[in-house]
Amino acid sequence: MIYCVEDDNSIRDLMIYTLNSAGYKTKGMTDAKQLFEALKREKPRLIMLDIMLPGQDGIQILKQLRQSAATADIPVIMATAKGTEYDKVIGLDLGADDYLAKPFGMMEMVSRVRAVLRRAEQNDRARILKIGELMMNTGEHTVFVHGKRVQLTLKEYELLRKFMENLGLVFTRDQLLESIWGEGYIGETRTVDVHIGTLRTKLGTCGDYIETVRGVGYRMEAHL
Prior knowledge:
By secondary structure, the protein is of the alpha/beta class.
């Protein structure tokens, strides 16, 4: 199920028709109230979220989604007005998985949806990655610190997995942007720094495993 949050009826209907034609079951809604009511009944695979909405705007909605453990890992694609670089960067910093600049083509939208879902889905076998008091189950998409589960956003999870699967390797900010955010991402490398900062905070004492390599980027080392 894909939720499409767009207050323009004609745009929303076209998006729903296109996504349904591409094989994705889709529901449309016009504002935050309808979205959060729907979330109580069913958790979607992805949310298409317009920024300019009546009442709560898309940025406020995204922030609320990422702050709730029940919705923090739902992939979100933001729709921004053409030229609103600030909104795009803020949305990605808050945990949006991709963005579309209006007016966008329907085939481009379907391509972005497929790419985000492909990154989000965990099709591989369940694997346990363990470093010190930090443990990740890639099959269940869960992370534990000192035995207590930690709720991460999709981007935070993908960053952590990248580090845990490549211990000791140094990644530049540009490499992390391309790997986690995709080649089409246009924005500042500070996006990586912001996500690393929140990830370290959520991991508590295990956040020290992520080291800053001055002038280069980041790597993970276990301090056993």
